[in-house]
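Quick start: load a record and inspect it. Here is histidine kinase:
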Amino acid sequence: MSRRQILCISRDRSTRATLTLALTDAPVSVAVAREPAVAIDRLERDPVDAVVIDAGTISDVPAVRSTLESVAPDLSIFGYWDADGGETTPVLTELSASNPATAPATDLAQLILDSITPSSTADRRPELVETIRCELADATSPRTVEQVLRTTFTASDAFVFAWVGEYDRGEQSVVPWITDPDATSWPTHRTFRVGNGANPLLERALYTQTLQTASTDSTRPIPFADRARERDVQAVAVSPLATSEERYGVLVVYADTALSAAERGTIRSVAEVASHVLETIAIRGQLEQQEQTLHRYERLVETAGDGIYVLDAAGHIMTINDAIVEMTGYTREGLLGEHADLLFDESTIDRAETAIGSLLRSNDRSTTIEAPLETKSGTRIPCEVQLTVLVHDDEFSGCVGVVRDVTERKRNERRLREQNERLDAFARIVSHDLRNPLGIAQGYLELVAETESLEHLPTARRSLDRMEAIIDDVLAIARDGAWASETTRVDLESAATEAWNHVSTGGAMLSIVDTMTLTADRSRLLRVFENLFRNAIEHGCDGDESEHELTVRVGTLECGACSLGADEIENGTGGELEADDPCGFFVVDDGAGLPDEFAAAAELFDPSVSTDADGLGIGLWVVREVAAGHDWRVTATESEAGGARFEFVTVAGRSSS
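Running the structure step on this input writes:
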């Protein structure tokens, strides 16, 4: 073998001596250069097969290596350093990007010679690498990777055994990963600590991302050394299984002869293939997990009862679920890409933009606003929208809205509010209207006791009867708040006559002008007539009742004669109302008329308004509430005779015939 030329770049005399001594018996010639510039000049003048750079005395080794490679691209370049301050054997690392390898300084002669001398085993490398590449082409799990590497290396004539170690970052350890422990006699059930110097081969392979080699005769500890010596193992190689982003573990290979450059290259190439396969499996697993998570989220969004939409930063609709489609009446295609102002009015958009701005200025990410949703048909659904802002790289990228229909809640709130108002009215009415007749009755009963005369008893009795009527009215109102709970066909004349008999009418007369059939709650309708009749009798006469016999008339309203006008009356049948069609009924008297102090007729129906000790009080309020419960509109006007006239008209569909 012809002598090869080795150039050592080092400023340390002892390092130069160590390397020269180690290469004394090798068929090489060793030259020394103290500075990189001298070495480069030597390369330009003389042929050199390999260069050794003393990393302990030469700074910026990567730059020196790059310069050397630019001068001699095929040059084998090694770095020599005493990484542990002399506590362990100095290490020689091959710095060539295409063929990185390490060995103890005592083995550097063989390492250098392997690098610069053609090997008879070079033809094994492509065959073994290609076999493993084909076996791993469809690998979908790390288990397959481990099995292929272990069985292929073990079956090869050039190697004795191989195993894969998984790197546990949290525990700072390498754990042998044998998927089929019964298939090997090697004692692989143990853990190797890294990071503390106890297992330098594994540690350097992981941390330097380069192939590490060692002889079983060296002083450096190797994994499973006892078992290796039993099997006459002469060399061990540890190659990292890693990518630029992740360390997966190591591939450890044992051979019964010193590892040649080709065999080390084979191990590195296999480790590179396995690393890419592990990376692909990991990425595929992450993608599958993300797809599963995304699918779950999509299913949750699609099946959510509340409407969900996603807007981009400009307010355009990017995503919607089925609930939004159902709520609005639009198709999915009709909404996607449109601006949010298709679903929300300008004031709602302004409130949402204000809320989003407030969220972006704070640490909060979500808030709730009221936002009426406008449907395709033009109706507005009262909704509550929970807004969540989307921020990417500290930039606002859009928002997510969860829309909940609160129609029923609003209805319940309104019902509760009306109920509370009713209770307030009850309190005012009971405290006022009951107190007055009660005070009168008590006063007259005291007169009876003082005078022992019974002439005041009828007056006291009338006050008590008035209290009883008020109590009946209050109970009628309080009874589940339904003003027309049991509707039936009721004859107008029959109901009015029955109610007249329930009232103390004195000398007043009832006249039924004409009749019609109403759809009404008979009990509530009787209460309307009783209250109107009682008010007419109690408040309709000025002065002495004997001088004027009050007449109360009840009859039907013709559309042409109605004070509302035919165009204001809704016909439930969908046809045109003729002027002589009945559209409601009236109650009119020829008494004193409506009190002058009421500025508006609507005040008559306010339970807080009263004109005298007896007061109109709850009576006319009950009339108004019963009318509303039947979808009737009640109006109060002055009659032709100067008395009071009350008209009831169907305004939400005809309930009469």
